[in-house]
Amino acid sequence: MLKKVLITFLLTSVIIYGMSIPIYKIPPYESIIYSKNILRDILFHDIKNSSWQNAKKYMKSASTTEDLPNIQADNQGYSFYIAGHTYGKPAVESKGLYRPFTDKFHLINEYKSIKFGFLLGDLVKKASNEAWELVKKDLDFLDPRIKNIIVPGNHDVGKGAHNALREIFLQQFGKTFFSFKHEKDLFIMLDGNINEWNISGEQLQFLKQSLPNKKDSTSNIFIFSHQLIWQSSSKPEFKKIKPNSLEGRSDNLNFWDEIFPLFSDLTNNIYFFSGDIGAFPNGNELFFAKYLNVTFVATGMGGGMRDNFLIVSVIKDQVEIFFVPIN
Predict the structure, then answer these.
(1) Cα distance between residue 63 and residue 326, in whole Å
(2) Which residues pair with 300 in a beta bridge?
(3) pTM for this one?
(4) 315-327 pLDDT tens trace
(5) Superfamily of domain 47-325
(6) Terminal-to-terminal C-alpha distance of the chain
């Protein structure tokens, strides 16, 4: 009897909770609505008017090294690759990096001007020391001249500043936000997982201190994050792009009020790169937009259609961005 009462109570609770979600918009209402929209986009997406199609107007495709700039020596320029969501398909168990991506490692190795690689988060589906060892094993197939830099995603470090996944990442790779300079260019890595996609606190202070003053000789500034911390439905340029996930995202992001003003007055060429797209074949596998003096680009893979990564070449301070199809 008691067992029947308990089962009835549990079933009733589940039904009431399920009915309350759409009425009162309680968690996980946002996730359910977003998942529904992702499914709708997969089934009914319009490629002709997609972010993928728009981005192709501004970036050239590169399938071989012959499609890329002919950089013969270090004094002529340098290049780097950028890849997002490299564990690949969401519904498939991850055993290292996405195979169609690693199948293109020969192109990265053959293009001798590549100095760096930026992996923009979600390299592992379920973070563990064993999963990271598989990733490292795959990356060992890249030429040792290339410094591979991991910018963590939510699958890599979880949500918030303190959790077990983040501790594993810190042990494996160290800091999650930092900067460095190469020649005249500044590279900045940001971690959108610490505070709900916001860049705040210690990380905001770091960002302010990293930026050049007007007397600085810095030419290009490249900023990397996993999340599309700049995505905004209130700006026409960014309405169409849909991230793979809204996990951990605050309803109030500080990018346009606090972060963008730090860059809008600079005279440098500024590029924001993000990597949380491409997991679904919905026309959001590539993104490009320019807003005032700042260029925003996103790339990703895993959906099995239009998967891609980027190769960026810097020649005499001028930046060229190519996308590499991998399907």
Answers:
(1) 8
(2) 277
(3) 0.88
(4) 999 999 999 999 8
(5) Metallo-dependent phosphatases (3.60.21.10)
(6) 58
